[in-house]
From TrEMBL:
InterPro entries with a match to the protein in the record: FabA, FabA_FabZ, HotDog_dom_sf
GO biological process terms, semicolon-separated: fatty acid biosynthetic process
Subunit structure: Homodimer.
Subcellular location: Cytoplasm
Pathway assigned to this chain's UniProt record: Lipid metabolism; fatty acid biosynthesis
One protein family per Pfam: FabA
Designated name of the protein: 3-hydroxyacyl-[acyl-carrier-protein] dehydratase FabA
Family designation: Belongs to the thioester dehydratase family. FabA subfamily.
Reaction(s) this enzyme catalyzes, per UniProt: a (3R)-hydroxyacyl-[ACP] = a (2E)-enoyl-[ACP] + H2O
């Protein structure tokens, strides 16, 4: 974990998307437009609510984001699944940041609550990921975490038991 800093700007995230941050075949973020954050402001392997690692990241909301034109015409709302994907992206990023090898895959989520919306007048989303388990054995590399997304300080999405694994395949 000491190999990498505790915060990353957009250029760093784009390096990760190209496979340049953690190396080829290891955890990668998607490229825009599916990259759901602009910066990671804090990351650890032993912080967070449970002392097992955490990530805090931000996504600037702009009225011209691609999903507002198509979801829904005349009633623009960011799809809630994109917020969930952002949480999964950050969970996998944390595993790569730990120096663990393999490509990231979302395995599921135990519970999802959507209690608010992201419309074009919002300014910023803040993601919070708190690991409950981080497992690395010969056969399994996986993170289990709870997360939430805030829009301008208001909690709008909450998840429990999201799972991301790293695999050599």
């Amino acid at each position: 974990m000491a190999l990498y800093p505790s915060s990353f700007d957009r250029d760093d995230l784009l390096k990760c998307a190209r496979g340049e941050l953690f190396g080829p075949g290891n955890a990668q973020l998607p490229e825009p437009p599916m990259l759901m954050m602009d910066r990671i402001t804090d990351i650890s392997g032993d912080g967070g609510e449970h002392g097992k690692g955490h990530v805090v990241a931000e996504f600037d909301i702009k009225p011209d984001l691609w999903f507002f034109d198509c979801h829904f015409p005349g009633n623009p709302i960011m799809p809630g699944c994109l917020g969930l994907d952002g949480l999964w992206q950050l969970t996998g990023f944390n595993l790569g940041w730990r120096g663990w090898q393999g490509r990231g895959y979302a395995l599921g989520v135990g519970e999802v609550k959507l209690t608010g919306m992201v419309r074009p007048d919002r300014k910023m989303l803040t993601y919070y990921v708190d690991f409950t388990k981080a497992i690395q054995t010969r056969r399994l590399t996986m993170g289990v975490a709870d997360g939430r997304v805030e829009a301008d300080g208001e909690v709008i999405y909450q998840v429990k038991d999201m799972k991301v694994a790293l695999s050599e395949n």
